[in-house]
């Protein structure tokens, strides 16, 4: 089977990201609202200083006592939702909803077979667990960006770091039975 293009992989990931974001809005919405309430005093004071062109060097008021715990809770819930969305579907079929729409699938390097739960979890861990490090000056987001861009620099299999860890490749599925006989692009 031909390897999936970077564009197809990125588009599928963005679709899945949108779905997980919607799930988070539903499940995490109350926690985000509470977090914003905890930040209201420093944000209000900051905005007042900007509007009044106040150049005071006094520190802003502290955020509420629960702000730190709320950030950790929000990130734990977001990571758990992503895990619950991605790992079971990848284990069973090698496809999330986004991958299904773009007709791409993750398969083991050695054979066209289901990933299984262990391999799907290893694949997700490398990309998903850094979400917990977003709290650390965006370190998790940087790690995820490096992972997402890594297929651009890997040849010949175009594996992302999470693919390398789980020993998988992402392939383009044919649209019709005739496409199987004449696959476009590179084959692994």
UniProtKB/TrEMBL annotation:
Keyword DNA damage among UniProt keywords: no
Residue ranges constituting the RDD domain according to the UniProt record: 3-166
Entry-linked Pfam families: RDD (PF06271)
GO cellular component, one term: plasma membrane
Keyword Transmembrane: yes
Its membrane topology: Multi-pass membrane protein
Localization in the cell: Cell membrane
Transmembrane segments annotated in the record for this chain: 12-33, 67-85, 127-146
InterPro entries, per the entry: Pra-immunoreactive (IPR051791), RDD (IPR010432)
Entry keyword set: Cell membrane, Membrane, Transmembrane, Transmembrane helix
Stored PANTHER family: MEMBRANE PROTEIN (PTHR36115:SF4), PROLINE-RICH ANTIGEN HOMOLOG-RELATED (PTHR36115)
Protein name according to UniProt: RDD domain-containing protein
Organism: Micromonospora sediminimaris
Lineage: Bacteria, Bacillati, Actinomycetota, Actinomycetes, Micromonosporales
């Amino acid at each position: 089977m031909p390897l999936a293009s970077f564009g197809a992989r990125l588009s599928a990931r963005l679709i899945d990201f949108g779905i997980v974001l919607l799930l988070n809005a539903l499940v995490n919405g109350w926690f985000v609202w509470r977090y914003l309430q905890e930040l209201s005093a420093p944000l209000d004071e900051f905005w007042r200083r900007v509007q009044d062109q106040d150049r005071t060097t006094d520190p802003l008021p502290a955020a509420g006592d629960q702000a730190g715990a709320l950030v950790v809770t929000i990130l734990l819930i977001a990571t758990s939702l992503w895990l619950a969305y991605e790992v079971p579907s990848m284990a069973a079929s090698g496809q999330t909803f986004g991958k299904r729409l773009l007709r791409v699938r993750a398969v083991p390097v050695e054979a066209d077979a289901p990933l299984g739960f262990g391999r799907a979890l290893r694949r997700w861990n490398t990309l998903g667990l850094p979400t917990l490090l977003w709290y650390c000056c965006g370190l998790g987001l940087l790690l995820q960006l490096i992972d997402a861009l890594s297929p651009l620099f890997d040849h010949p299999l175009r594996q992302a770091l999470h693919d390398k860890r789980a020993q998988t490749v992402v392939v383009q599925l044919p649209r019709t039975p005739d496409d199987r006989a004449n696959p476009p692009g590179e084959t692994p």
